[in-house]
Amino acid sequence: MNGTVVFDPILPWPVIWALGGAALLLVALALWRGLSGWWLRALALGVLLAALANPALQEEDRAPLSDIVIAVVDESASQRIGDRAEQGADALASVEAEVAALPNTELRVVRVGDGEGDEGTQLMTALSEALAEEPRSRVAGAILITDGQAHDLQLAPQMPAPLHVLLTGRERDWDRRLVVKNAPAFAILGEPMTLTLRIEDQGRAPASAGESADLTISIDGDEPQSFRVPVGEDLELPVTLPHGGMNVLQFQVAASEGELTDRNNAAVVQINGVRDRLRVLLVSGEPHAGERVWRNLLKSDASVDLVHFTILRPPEKQDGIPVSELSLIAFPTRELFVEKIEEFDLIIFDRYRLRGILPTSYLENVRDYVRGGGTVLVAAGPEFGSADSLWRSPLADVLPVQATSRVIEGGFRPALTDVGRKHPVTQGLEKLAPEGGWGRWFRQIELTASSGQVVMNGAGERPLLVLDRVGEGRIAVLASDHMWLWGRGYEGGGPQLELLRRLAHWMMKEPDLEEEALIANAEGATVTITRRTIGEAPGEVTITGPDGGETALTMEETAPGRWSTTWDAPEMGVYRLAQGEQKAVIAVGPSAPREFEETIASGEKLAPIIGPTNGGTIRLEDGEPDIRAVREGRVAAGRGWVGITPRGAHVTQDIRVAALLPGWLYLLLAAGLALGAWLREGRFSRRV
């Protein structure tokens, strides 16, 4: 039962206050005139004002509500180091027993695991969500059982009661970790880049840990190399990527005796190797309708540096024009095909014929350039079957075709071969065909394929596009000069730009267009494995984990020439994949997990949040604390104890309101006081 006086004024409060002011003036006037009953007049006016305020007695029947204590238990990865999990479990059991012994108090337990991805320990998020589920007027305190390494401190809630930390871990703990300070996502092939590494000790490292450590470095799972490096200093490591596409670099520091964990002794960096500028030499033997197709394609790519020459005036042309009056640029054949040929990533011969411009020795350089790792594309026209064809030059040693000297005139529709449906250059192009199929071409040079892969056929199923690898290089032959008809949209056109783009990038050894490749991508712990092949169905893929264990998986065909499967990695780290001669390396998880960046238990991060609540930090290695009740605003932590603030929350079950005095009694009192003032003043005046 709880009683309070409430007011329900008959007149608005401003009016009552105005009447009160007038009453004060009247009383002051009576006092100034020396009336002996001025105080009775004041009481009478006060009774009338009280009657206008209409006071009443309100009685409430209240049911008390229990206080709530929130315990947030950190069960993240860093809490599983050493005996912290056991410390946390013992501390929770102690808190449960202490709260159960307190009168009218309940305990809410919230457990916090690892955050999604690499978010770390979301301790404050869990506390905020727990507070949101409870009436703040009932929260008497909160206790965090943790190692203090929270990663969402900016989300700390406003606490209505003391917040305490029961700190796991040991004061003597120490740990060694490897830090990669800068790791670019991309790097230019052939150019050295610098990675900055640092090996640092945390906590109370013993003298036996030493001032240097063994660092091993491995690229794409190859045999690691070991170096002795200092501890506590930045290490500048020059690295040149060995190949295009994804390069996986793994760094490992040898574990030391007594350190907390070796989970942060390794770091994995994935860097995509890209070319800076792709240099392409385009040599057009004569002007023709399809010449601009190549030029527009290569000029539209910002990463391509194009050098284009069109032979407008062959040496045999004799028209009597003085050389001094010619404005044509001389073809720098020696500079391009002798001195700087190795600088080009791709050489395209577009309807080129032997006219004595390039001597035999220069074409031998081109042949050797292909065998040494260069790439050549021959876009053939009618000249390819003639006596001055490139097929009759030293370049024929690396060409995958033989010419029959026959030019086929007449409409035909290009089509993909069985190999072409699997090859990355042409795979899926049939899906880009307009309604009614691709438009027709009207000229093809008859060829027979002697090596390589025929990915497109033309008239009479004759080879139209042939791709081949020669030594370390690549070569391709397109047996028609009518691809430009697709670009003009003739009969609906076709995927001209997409085909030429893929062809050019395959020639320039783009990793995404390799016909034989084993590819792995990780999203979280799920690894997607893809095998591209133009051959028969591949066998099982073997996965070797960080611990050396092997797993064999069967892949299913998802598209022609493409086989894939998914697999959940059991732990973070570097996995090596092998299927036949194809190998790949994939890193699962972040380069350095956030949970293990700082492993030493400490209350420093949480101190700014705990301080304003009058809470405290207690190390569990000193023993579990008692829980006491303290008044609001008082210090709520001390040696061996923490405090909660009882809130006294309640729910009102019934309310009764009764007038303090009846209205007639107010009038009777006011009248009596007024009469008393009149009689007193009358007797006093007769006496005078």
- Helix-and-strand structural type: alpha/beta
Note the gap between the termini: 57 Å
Shape descriptor: elongated
Q: Tell me the helix content.
A: 10-25%
Strand content: 35-45%
How many DSSP helices? 11
Q: Main sheet, how many strands, which sense, barrel? A: 8 strands, mixed
Mean pLDDT: 85
Number of strands: 37
**Poorly predicted residue ranges:** none
Radius of gyration: 45 Å
**Strand sequence of the main sheet, in spatial order?**
16-15-17-18-24-23-22-20
Write up this protein:
- The strands form 9 sheets. Strands 16-15-17-18-24-23-22-20 form an 8-stranded mixed sheet. Strands 4-3-5-6-33 form a 5-stranded parallel sheet, sandwiched between helices. A 5-stranded mixed sheet has the order 8-14-13-10-11, with no helix packed on it.
- The protein has 688 residues and is α/β, with parallel strands linked by helices.
- The model has no long low-confidence stretch (mean pLDDT 85).
- It is 20% helix and 35% strand.
